[in-house]
């Protein structure tokens, strides 16, 4: 029968959503969402991953996304990215054009001008609160170089998103209280990246290890001047399932690496860029970490050619 809609009349919602999930690219899913209102609504249900850049106001963008996509599990926010919005409209004033994005116009219509702050291109604590409120089932979150967020926002997020398994805070200026809240609330956390988190100290990392050390499998630390061997000793005591450790610090010594080697027998990947670590620590790794599969040594100024018998 020509003109008869066999798909929408015969296929249930669950099957169409599953078909959308099997599409190999975002442009394909976007095209499907334009077919009809039903497909638009179902395609939104199939979205599990969102990427947000530094265009416009990320805080507002997250609020709008939360209204449309209900099954999101992975969010990647990178302030180094500039994601172009779908439409740019121009309003002419004299000889100049005031460019207004479709996102701005939509938000102004829905919320009123007083709720829209477009001067900032940085995610703030308000954005983290919106993330927690909008995506409570969040499992993986990357906050890359989001320098305007603080412990307050991270605490609010952790209290709402207890299912987090991966958290990337690279370049974020969060403090110890925020990291401690993650340890208290996110008991399933497996992967944590703390590279270039300059505000953190041993206090925050020790509290995190106490809170969710049992589940932690991967940890990255770099350029954190206030994190010392004290933190690694806590990791060795409480993170028995740790499999991957990436460490770049001139403030770490043998004591911390020895604690990890003796306390984390499941270690498979070890990347060290620590100028104060010597052969003693490397020997302990070879003796205690029988599961080690990958070892990378960078700037090893105090390692020698001494043969180390790995188990």
UniProtKB/TrEMBL annotation:
Pfam families: DUF7885 (PF25372), F-box_5 (PF18511). GO terms for cellular component: SCF ubiquitin ligase complex. Residues 137-254 form the F-box/LRR-repeat protein 15-like leucin rich repeat domain. GO terms for biological process: SCF-dependent proteasomal ubiquitin-dependent protein catabolic process. InterPro entries: COI1_F-box, F-box-like_dom_sf, FBXL15_LRR, Leu-rich_rpt_Cys-con_subtyp, LRR_dom_sf. Residues 11-48 form the COI1 F-box domain. This is F-box domain-containing protein. It comes from Cannabis sativa.
